[in-house]
Amino acid sequence: MPSDHNISEAESLDLFWMQRALELARQAEAEGEVPVGAVLVKNEQILGESWNAPIGEHDPTAHAEIRALRNAATRLGNYRLLDTTLYVTLEPCVMCAGAIIHARVKRVVYGAADPKTGAAGSMFDILNSELHNHRVEITSGVLESECSALLKEFFQARRNKSS
Description:
Blueprint: H1 9-30, E1 37-42, E2 45-51, H2 54-57, H3 64-76, E3 85-90, H4 94-103, E4 107-112, E5 137-140, H5 144-162
Parallel strand pairs: 3-4, 4-5
Antiparallel strand pairs: 1-2, 1-3
Helix pairs in contact: 1-5
């Protein structure tokens, strides 16, 4: 894993795993899906990873985060994903935030904020609501420009195609 003397080991790990999430987002894009990727990590090991696939799977819940959580839960044989970190290229929506809370994910690291439907503080603050008995640590803006650019380019290309 890369190391830079100007950043901490934790920041270096965040960059490393977000790069993997970006690779997965590109897989979604290659399949005609909104380019969002997610990686669930514990002790520097991938437990689950995926990309957006609601169009291809005909499933409105097939967001990258949900699919990564499902992969990890199946692998572990447990729906509780304690002491894990979820890396995702776009701020989770309300649905994904609910799943993250129910799975007891410890930390979410995301790249691009979602000012329309983000549920990690942009539009809603589901992950840290005092109404829940579980709160999630949040780190935002990791590789934000790369994550945002991927989404902007995707939607620009889609708009150009339809005009």
